[in-house]
Amino acid sequence: MKIANQNQQEEYRAFLKNIREERKGTSNFAKLLFTVVLAVLCAVIVCVTLLENSMILDKLTTQQTDASGGFFKFSRKKKDFQVPFSPRRQNILLLGVDSNGDGADLWEGTRSDTIMVVNVDPKTHTVKAITIPRDSKVYLPENKGVQKINSAHALGGVNLVKKTLKETFGIKIDKYIIVHDEAVEKVVDALGGIPIYVEKPMKYHDYAGHLHIDLDKGTTVLNGKQAVGYLRYRKDGLGDIGRTQRQQWFLRSLFEKLHSPQVITKLPEVLNVLSTYVKTDMSFYELSQYAAFARGVDENKIEIATLPGAPNQKGYISYWILDPQKTQEVIDRMIYRDKVAVDVTKLKAGIMYSPRKEQEAMALKEQLSELGFEVNTLKITHLSHSRFVANKNAVSVDFFNWIQKKIPSTNKMQFVYDPTENFSVGSDFTIILAEG
Question: What dihedral angle (degrees, nearest 10) is formed by the CA atoms of 192, 196, 202, 207?
Fold first, then answer.
């Protein structure tokens, strides 16, 4: 079924012209202090809650590397970036580093098990973020050879990470924030816990790794240790895919917590945590500028993607082999903001839903059909939190915002770009209706 007529297409174009509104800032010092902490705190959680986020697909088979050795260098477009806050887009590198053991230096020789590049655009007031799987097979500069990309920080610090990103992916880094992996537990405790919906019972004990998870299904307030367990749990048949979904949902719960008035009383303790476990090359002024920017960003317009690929086992080493074509597509979309012309009359919709969400799924199908979309549905027993997944490059955040305007029930959903089509029902975009 096609969208009814040309009026629908014209209405969509008109909507895009008015989609963004200017947001007013504040000069109040207390609010400025809060937003500065908020910006760094968000960086803490984004980095470390995505710790070990290699987005490994839950597949039984592996793929072989290509003749070039299994790593690729992607085209580099020349773009200028400037420090805050010019109209130019800027790339901020967020690293979550591990520990070398009790008493060891927090930063020296540590692997960056979380690597994220956040692209901010002051003109459109939008944010796009790319997560680079830690096991990605790349060639490290300075004659470091073929390695997993998470070895770059251990072998050459943040400068080698920046050089690797530039030479491999064509991504120039303007500023960086590094967060130690102990930050999540301490920040969550400093905030007095984070409310979260635990979608299933989670029981797991790793005595060697000092990881103990004992969570019941349902809505609860997680303390620091519980939050770490929730974020790292992977024994649910979904592996790193399920873990990644929980990490992203945790971020939304965190943002809601940060907007509560009670947080202001937690600032002294949070500041103490940040001063110990965060390292950055930003000045206070720069942090305040980014903070002011972050406060005005609509979380529904934040786009997240992970570089696509597939696992490969070579001896005792497990690599993530990047898909060159899809990786380039993600970089072009997220970093260089390339846009694909979209004819909304040709997009296909999909709905994945939990058994208890069947009634809502059928109502949503009817709404999408009334808009003229062909809709495919699929009932799945185990689904995590509800979200909107763009399976094709033509499906943008702007299109999602248009859908939100037409179907208000989608307003609280997170937007995820996933060209691997893991969550596709023969569709260009998929709306997932889960219990959480």
Answer: -30
Residue 198 · residue 183 · CB < 8 Å = no
Closest CA to 399 of 118, 9, 80: 9
Number of helical H runs and strand E runs in the chain: 11, 19
Please report, for the chain, the start and end positions of each structural domain, with discontinuous segments joined by +: 29-183+268-334, 339-433
Decide if pLDDT at 125 tops 50: yes
What tens digit of pLDDT does each residue of 81-110 get? Answer: 344 556 688 999 988 887 776 667 778 888
The backbone torsions φ and ψ at residue 114, rounded to the nearest 5 degrees and listed phi first, read -125, 125
Helix (H, G, I), strand (E, B) or coil at 423: coil
CATH architecture observed for domain 29-183+268-334? 2-Layer Sandwich (3.30)
414-431: b (≥16 Cβ within 10 Å) or e: bbbbbbbbebbbebbbbb
Strand partners, 306: 131
Please tell me the distance from the alpha carbon of residue 351 to that of residue 192, in angstroms, as a whole number. Answer: 36
pLDDT at site 176 = 92
- Sign of the torsion angle spanned by Cα atoms 304, 307, 313, 316: negative
CB-CB contact of 416 with 55 (8 Å): no
| C-alpha 249 chain-centroid distance | 10
Question: Highest-confidence range of 288-292, 305-309, 363-367, by mean pLDDT?
Answer: 363-367
Could you tell me the two tokens for 427? 């569709």
pLDDT at 41: 53
The long-range contacts involving 402-409, CB below 8 angstroms and separated by at least 24 positions, are 402/12, 402/15, 402/16, 402/344, 404/300, 405/15, 406/367, 406/371, 407/364, 407/367, 407/368, 409/360, 409/364
Distance of alpha carbon 221 from its chain centroid, rounded? 22
Say if CB 389 and CB 399 are below 8 A apart: no
The C-alpha atoms of residue 222 and residue 224 are separated, in whole angstroms, by 7
Beta strands 302-306; 126-131: pairing state: parallel
Per-residue pLDDT tens over the stretch 165-197 = 999 999 999 999 888 878 878 888 988 898 988
Options 3.30.70.2390, 3.90.1260.10, 3.30.930.10, 3.40.50.970; CATH of 339-433: 3.30.70.2390
The answer to whether 74 and 327 have CB atoms below 8 angstroms apart is yes
Find the mean pLDDT for residues 191-207. 84
Question: How do beta strands 429-433 and 348-353 pair?
Answer: parallel
Q: What is the pLDDT of residues 301-322, one digit of tens each?
A: 788 888 888 888 777 788 889 9
